[in-house]
Amino acid sequence: MNESLIARPAVLALELAAGETPERLELTRDEAQTLAGLIADDLRALLPGVEASRLAVAGALFDGVELLRPGFPVFATLEELGRRIPRVTTAGGVVAFGTSDGHMPAQPLVPDPAYAGGPMRLIPWMLLAPADIADELAERMEVELVGRGEAGTATADFLMRTLGMRLEHARFLSRDDLMALTCVQYEHVNLAPLWTMLEAALLTPYKEETALGSRGLPLHYAEGRVGVPRIADWFARAGNKGANPVHEFAGTLFELRQYAALLAAHHVPLHLEGEAARTAGYLVEPVADADPAQPAPLLYAHEAAGLGMAAITVAQPVPGKARVLAHGYPLAPDALAPLLDALAERYGAASEVHALGRMMLDADGALTAPAPTLH
Known about the structure:
Structural class: alpha+beta
């Protein structure tokens, strides 16, 4: 493996015409090699002298969330393969990786069909540059690619014919350009605090970072994961309740679901501060242990427009005031059933769910549950 070469990662960004989808997400080895040759031709026009560097291309179409994950696993795999390819012994050369007998050479280079519906597809590539020109080449990539990095007609035509799709644009971007574009996209949909967390996870995973959600929910990145405070407890103490606390709390949960979905897509775990990170698509906020002298715990479902079952409260129906044991928050679309099972098992509650038809808050703005009437 040639350690003297410095990796400069980038993508070929394909903006699909409206309603278009590629027939497949992977190129064969021969197709990938043809594409790599066309990309090399384009880069020679954009970056004179690039021939001194090795070009490595992955013949696969990804979504941005798949490429922007901690450790950049797709780029790291492409780099490793690009360095190891045995028939290239000098700095220069063009190598490509596609399917053989239907399989890519490494699992990280296999796109996930779950993210295939977006309007932009990204083909990863990188230059492995000799150390003495790597910095200067990186600077030129940042200037030239974003400024005039439209792919050549031959490159675009090959992709459209091979993958059965029409393209609006095909242009080269450095990985930093891709991150800047993603930042703008998230800011445009009011998710700038989330990008603050993702940027830390991608670029400075050894540092802590904080941000506030648009409704004031604190976000804290540390040790590879994003933490939020105990939701019901935070809202009761410090949340912005406004004139309609129920509406504000539901809005906080809606925002949290957005954060959870994107963090999961970028492979950054989410957890409640003080609790373990979860990959099951839900969060559990413990409040108290069950009192064996009181009635058996029950599950109550808080409902809100646009959220369905927004939260689940486990409570013992003590006459006069329910004894709340925990709150659960389903964040992923398929997380409600596993959450209900987990709460029922953990607190010894019956699996039957009591639908409240609304979100029920106490006088402090904390989630609560109904209590039997005292006689």
